[in-house]
Design goal:
It is built from 12 helices and 20 strands. It is of the alpha/beta class. The protein has 2 domains: 183 residues, Enolpyruvate transferase domain (UDP-n-acetylglucosamine1-carboxyvinyl-transferase, Chain, Alpha-beta prism); 201 residues, UDP-n-acetylglucosamine1-carboxyvinyl-transferase, Chain. The protein has a 4-stranded mixed sheet. It has a 4-stranded mixed sheet with strand order 4-5-3-12, covered by helices on one side. A 4-stranded mixed sheet has the order 6-7-9-8. Strand 4 and strand 5 form a beta hairpin. Helix 1 runs parallel beside helix 3, helix 2 packs parallel to helix 3 and helix 7 packs parallel to helix 8. The longest helix is centred in the N-terminal third of the chain and has 14 residues. It is globular and about 60 Å long.
Length: 392
C-alpha cells in the first residue's frame, strides 16, 4: 500500500499504545507460570501475535479479550512444535533458548529479513550447552536437544535480545546457572526490563535455575515510548500533540526521547545510539529540520527490519535532506525538508518517520509500502488522520 500525505500539522491527544517489548516478556513468563494471567493490552500487533502463536504451539491456551489476553499456562509440552515467528526478532531470539531449556524439538519459521538477522553468538552458546541447531531451509531454524545448567557466556555487544532469551530460559532449567556477559552491553535498558518482568513473576534472576514463574494474576502492559516517540517528535516540530499513558520511570530505554528532543532544538548534539537504536530514524528527521546531529555507535541499525542506516539516509535525501555515514557514525545535516517519495523498505519505523516529516515539508510525501506499520503500530495511520493528518 502506497499513500500520499499532504503537508499538515497535527493536533490532539494520543494514548500511547502498549509496549510490545514488555508484552513479549510478559506473555512468555505467563505461558510458563503456575496459574492463569490476565494481561491488559488494549492493542496488539504482528510481532505480539507471532509470540502468541508460538506460545500456543508450545501448549499455552491464550484467549483474546476486549483489552488484551487471558494466558492459561502450558500444562503439557509437545515433543515437537512448529513456531511461526513472522518477522519478529524478539519472538525468535527469546523463544529459541526457551525451547532449548524445555527440550522441545522445534522448527522456527521466519519471514522478511528475519532469516538474515544475526543469531551468533547465541547459536554457538546453545550448541556448547547441549542443543543442536540447524537451518533446514533459509527461512527456518531447527532446535533439538536440551540445554543443561551451568555457566553461560554471551557477548553483550550484538543484541540484548540474546541476553533476555537466556535469562528467561535459564530460569526454567533444573540446577543453578550463571550468565556471564562479556564486552560492552548494547541496549542495556531492555535487559533491565527483562529483570523487572522476571521479578514480577517471582523469579530471582541472581540465582537462575530450579525456579517457577508465579503469576501475579493481573498485569497491565505499560505505554510504549518507542511508538509514542513519533508523535512526541511531531510536537517538537510544531504540531499541537500531547501523548498520554507514558511512565517516565519506565525501564524502556526509548523514554530518553523526552530528553533528546529538546537537545535537537538547541544545537547539533552528538547522540549515542547504543541504547536507543529504534529512535534514530525519527530523531534524524527532527535533527534535519533543526541544526543537525551526529549519531554514534550505529552498527546495529544495519541489522534491523531494513539496513536502517541506509534507509534513514535514503528517506532524508528523498525529502530534500542530507546525511552521511561511516561504519560507526551517522551525520545528519540541517536541511529544509521539501517532500518526495520515500521507500519504507518494509521498515515500520521508516514509514512512520516519513509521515511525521510530512508535517514540516512544503510538498507532498508519498510513502511506499506504508502497510508495514502493522508490525508494531497497526492503527498508526488511523491515529494520524484523527489528529488532522491528510493522506490518500
Amino acid at each position: 500500500m502506497d499513500i500520499t500525505i499532504y503537508p499538515q500539522k497535527l493536533c490532539g491527544t494520543v494514548t500511547a499504545i502498549p509496549s510490545k517489548s514488555q508484552a513479549h516478556r510478559l506473555l512468555i513468563c505467563a505461558a510458563f507460570a503456575d496459574k492463569p494471567t490476565i494481561l491488559h493490552c488494549f492493542q496488539t500487533n504482528k510481532d505480539m501475535q507471532a509470540t502468541v502463536a508460538c506460545l500456543e504451539a508450545l501448549g499455552a491456551k491464550i484467549n483474546t479479550t476486549a483489552d488484551g489476553y487471558i494466558v492459561n499456562p502450558v500444562t503439557s509440552l509437545p515433543k515437537e512444535a512448529v513456531l511461526p515467528c513472522g518477522e519478529s526478532g524478539s519472538t525468535l531470539r527469546f523463544l529459541l533458548p526457551v525451547v532449548g531449556a524445555l527440550g522441545v524439538d522445534a522448527l522456527f519459521k521466519l519471514e522478511g529479513r528475519l532469516p538474515y538477522r544475526p543469531l551468533s553468538p547465541l547459536w554457538e552458546e546453545m550448541e556448547r550447552m547441549g542443543c543442536r541447531l540447524s537451518r533446514p531451509q533459509e527461512n527456518t531454524v531447527r532446535c533439538t536437544g536440551k540445554l543443561k545448567s551451568g555457566v553461560y557466556q554471551i557477548d553483550g555487544g550484538v543484541s540484548s535480545q540474546f541476553i533476555t532469551g537466556l535469562l528467561l530460559s535459564l530460569s526454567l532449567l533444573e540446577g543453578e546457572s550463571q550468565l556471564q556477559i562479556t564486552g560492552k552491553v548494547e541496549s542495556a535498558p531492555y535487559i533491565a526490563m527483562t529483570k523487572a518482568v522476571l521479578s514480577q513473576f517471582g523469579v530471582d534472576y541472581t540465582a537462575l535455575g530450579t525456579q517457577h514463574f508465579h503469576s501475579p494474576g493481573e498485569i497491565t502492559v505499560e505505554g510504549d515510548w518507542s511508538n509514542a516517540a513519533f508523535f512526541l517528535a511531531a510536537q517538537s516540530l510544531g504540531s499541537d500533540v500531547t501523548a498520554t499513558n507514558l511512565d517516565h520511570a519506565s525501564e524502556q530505554g526509548d523514554r530518553e526521547v523526552a530528553q533528546l528532543l529538546p537537545k535537537l532544538h538547541s544545537g547539533c548534539p552528538t547522540i549515542d545510539a547504543s541504547d536507543i537504536p529504534d529512535l534514530i530514524p525519527i530523531l534524524s528527521v527532527v535533527a534535519a529540520a533543526n541544526q543537525g546531529a551526529v549519531f554514534t555507535h550505529i552498527q546495529r541499525l544495519r541489522l534491523k527490519e531494513s539496513d536502517r542506516v541506509a534507509s534513514t539516509i535514503a528517506m532524508l535525501e528523498a525529502l530534500g535532506g542530507s546525511a552521511t555515514a561511516t561504519d560507526d557514525t551517522l551525520t545528519v545535516s540541517p536541511s529544509r525538508l521539501t517532500g518526495g517519495v520515500v521507500d519504507s523498505h518494509n521498515d515500520h519505523r521508516i514509514a512512520m518517520s516519513a509521515a511525521i516529516a510530512a508535517t514540516v515539508c512544503t510538498q507532498n510525501v508519498t510513502v511506499l509500502g506504508a502497510e508495514c506499520v502493522s508490525k508494531s503500530y497497526p492503527t498508526f495511520w488511523q491515529e494520524y488522520r484523527r489528529l488532522g493528518g491528510k493522506y490518500e
